[in-house]
Amino acid sequence: MRLTAKGRATRQRIIEGAAAYLRSDDPAGVTLDDIRAITGTSKGQIFHYFPDGKEELFLAVARFEADRVLDDQQPHLGALTSWAAWERWRDSVIARYRAQGRNCPLGALMSQVGSTPGANEVVSTLLNRWQFHVREGIAEMQEAGLVRASVDADRVAAAFIAGIQGGVQVLRSTGSIAHLEASLDTLIDHLRG
Amino acid sequence: MRLTAKGRATRQRIIEGAAAYLRSDDPAGVTLDDIRAITGTSKGQIFHYFPDGKEELFLAVARFEADRVLDDQQPHLGALTSWAAWERWRDSVIARYRAQGRNCPLGALMSQVGSTPGANEVVSTLLNRWQFHVREGIAEMQEAGLVRASVDADRVAAAFIAGIQGGVQVLRSTGSIAHLEASLDTLIDHLRG
DNA sequence: CTTTTTCTGGACCGGCTGGTCCACTGTGGT
DNA sequence: ACCACAGTGGACCAGCCGGTCCAGAAAAAG
């Protein structure tokens, strides 16, 4: 599919409009017609830019949102080289999800598109990159002698990822951010030894 | 609504049949007609026993499954009074979710019924009871002098809940149970100090 | 045995939603 | 000027799915 500048702009408008919609409103039943209305486009355009329809569009939105998740944690996530940096990262994660509240765009997408290979791939990629940064941070702290060498960096990084995911899920269900905080704080405590 | 013995049996058959279906098959798009077919009932019966339709039925199934989640961890979860007991509990959780694999009945229900008050209440109740047992376990370990008193039992219990939830979610997305294991092991390590 | 209530089966409906189709318009290249 | 193709709009369709309704069987009540 060849795209002109105008075409690329429209395609992007659809993705970002859909993402904005998911971030603001109840995402339980997102329909193509909702997105069409919000982005000021037509059915023809949606299927022109996303020939495979709903799934292709939603996966594009999911990838867009997945990038945002990591971007929102930068520059902290990329430089976990001191306890202060870890605290700043912690705060940025809490702040991000507190602002997001109960609406989780990625979660909404995933429950819509189900567990297709494409969806799993988006989530896996995000979690892998996320965990990679945390693991790097732990390893650097160990090299600097700030974290004991007996800590299994990969395992604890996995625990961070799981704790964050679970904390966000609890936030979505109960509206309380306490679990996310507890998870991050406990694991950082664990690193401090 | 008055129920005879036969009626109660049918109602239960619907709930348990639906639960079994969610446990085995891809639960992305569960429809009332699926449940009707599997349980060998008719539309009339479903709406007879669950007048509010889909949501009422699905919440009943969710409550049923939520009870199972805790039951499957007993008797270990109720008596976390030694390190051996904690390990047994850990193993039972891992075993349960390894057996369950990618199909998470409760998760499927929740993504179907959305974030209605009823659904949130079911999840909140489950998580609260779960966390209560873990907190009690930590407190007992502290009283026995096996865990240092400086540990905030409630906070670490919350971290356990978040870690488990996140681990299960990663399992659903990637099929790997590593995150669940990492989370439990890291937090138990943390308790060991 | 009659009456009343519960239980069961399934035909039917209305609306929603993803997806198709086609006509029309813009636009860039030659 | 022309042409080919990208972009746009929206009417239309088919299937699905939650939900309604009613008629008849079974069983409790009297």
TrEMBL record, chains A, B:
Q: Show the coiled coil region(s).
A: none
Name all HTH tetR-type domain ranges.
14-61
**What residues does the Tetracyclin repressor-like C-terminal domain cover?**
87-184
UniProt cross-references to InterPro entries, sorted A to Z? Homeodomain-like_sf, HTH_TetR, Tet_transcr_reg_TetR-rel_C_sf, TetR_C
* Keyword annotations: DNA-binding, Transcription, Transcription regulation
Q: Is Transcription among the key words of this record?
A: yes
Its domain of life reads: Bacteria
| Descriptive protein name | TetR/AcrR family transcriptional regulator
